[in-house]
Automatic annotation (TrEMBL):
Pathway membership: Amino-acid biosynthesis; L-methionine biosynthesis via salvage pathway; L-methionine from S-methyl-5-thio-alpha-D-ribose 1-phosphate: step 1/6
A Gene Ontology molecular function term of the record: S-methyl-5-thioribose-1-phosphate isomerase activity
PANTHER family documented for this protein: METHYLTHIORIBOSE-1-PHOSPHATE ISOMERASE (PTHR43475)
This protein's name: Methylthioribose-1-phosphate isomerase
Record organism: Hydrogenobacter hydrogenophilus
Active-site residues from the entry: D218
Highest taxon, organism lineage: Bacteria
Keyword Amino-acid biosynthesis part of the UniProt annotation: yes
Enzyme Commission number(s): 5.3.1.23
GO biological process, one term: L-methionine salvage from methylthioadenosine
Site positions (Transition state stabilizer): C138
Length: 317
């Protein structure tokens, strides 16, 4: 059975609490938009496409009792970087204004995202040679989307096409989306993988042990700059220095048509506490300051290709 991050149940949303993985599978029953907003803000659910889908269902729950504009704003204000959130909420508000069934709209958003992931998997799998060692950052799998995944979806598709693919999984401090979530997904399906600390990737590239890097995206600008999990930019510089192909995999719902340069993308800054401790484990003196930028910007010049459900855009030869 495929991994799912959420299930819409008509009058509530069942959400897998990703803060509890990999030790526990805890499902939250969300019955109003405030609970959904809190789940997004606290990263019980995360991942640009998943956030868009879940916010759409939160919008349905909210407008049963609240003014749609208020509901829209509450959900919109949860996290500032992932464009899919705004794209989905604008689509829901438009559907409402046009007299369409909002529940059908939200379910279409979910189904379209899943279909896009499968399509990107089919397109992207041919870029992964049989026997390849690939590196991925953060979590871009079923937990970050409506299912299957974006970058991890390409890796899944390559695996299920019969190719031998091994995945180096960047742990991705501080939330550990890689070591906690990507490894959990890959283990469930028996896809070979090795968790590494974030600082290991460059040395593996120098030793010729990485054949390609595949990452997701939270927002992509008109010129092809990409906002993604913090550490992505560093990986892109290392990949460029070592001649390793660097692929971004994202549906068209991640593309922001209003922004030219990545410098104009708002970068979420999260609590210092999330850097200085993890699940009650102290990682730094409580008196020390910490800087917690949740995303960074990778310039188009560092990207080999962007894979979308509409095709593969080669940024550079
Ligand atoms: C399939 S895109 C997932 C994207 O979202 C992640 O961020 P977060 O876990 O903070 O929501 C990361 O940037 C991934 O690439």
């Amino acid at each position: 059975m495929e991994v799912k991050a959420f299930y819409w149940k008509g009058d509530h949303l069942l959400l897998l609490d990703q803060r509890e993985l990999p030790e526990r599978e805890v499902w939250l029953k969300l019955t109003d938009h405030l609970q959904v907003a809190d789940a997004i803000k606290s990263m019980a659910v995360r991942g640009a496409p998943a956030i868009g889908c879940v916010a759409s269902y939160g919008f349905i729950l909210g407008i049963k009792k609240e003014d749609p504009q208020k509901v829209y704003q509450v959900l919109r204000n949860t996290r500032p970087t992932a464009y899919n959130l705004f794209w989905a909420l604008e689509r829901m508000m438009k559907a409402l204004k046009e007299g369409k069934d909002p529940e059908k709209e939200a379910m279409s958003i979910e189904q379209e995202d899943y279909n896009a992931n499968r399509r990107m998997g089919e397109l992207g799998k041919d870029l992964i040679p049989d026997g390849a060692n690939v590196l991925t950052h953060c979590n871009t799998g079923a937990l970050a989307t409506a299912g299957w995944g974006t970058a991890l979806g390409v890796i899944r598709s390559a695996h299920y096409s019969g190719k031998k693919v091994h995945v180096f999984v960047n742990e991705t401090r501080p939330y550990l989306q890689g070591s906690r979530l990507t490894a959990w997904e890959l283990l469930k399906e028996g896809i070979p993988h090795t968790v590494i600390t974030d600082m290991t990737a460059g040395f593996l590239m120098k030793k010729g042990l990485i054949d390609a890097v595949l990452v997701g995206a939270d927002r992509i600008t008109k010129r092809g700059d990409v906002a993604n999990k913090i550490g992505t930019y560093t990986l892109s510089v290392l990949a460029k220095a070592h001649g390793v192909p660097f692929y971004v995999v994202a549906p068209t719902s991640t593309f922001d048509p209003n922004i030219e340069s990545g410098e104009d993308i708002p970068i979420e800054e999260r609590s210092e506490e999330e850097v200085k401790s993890f699940k009650n484990c102290t990682l730094a003196p409580k008196e020390s300051r910490a800087l917690h930028l949740a995303f960074d910007i990778t310039p188009a010049e560092n990207i080999t290709a962007i894979i979308t459900e509409e095709g593969i855009k080669y940024i550079k030869p």
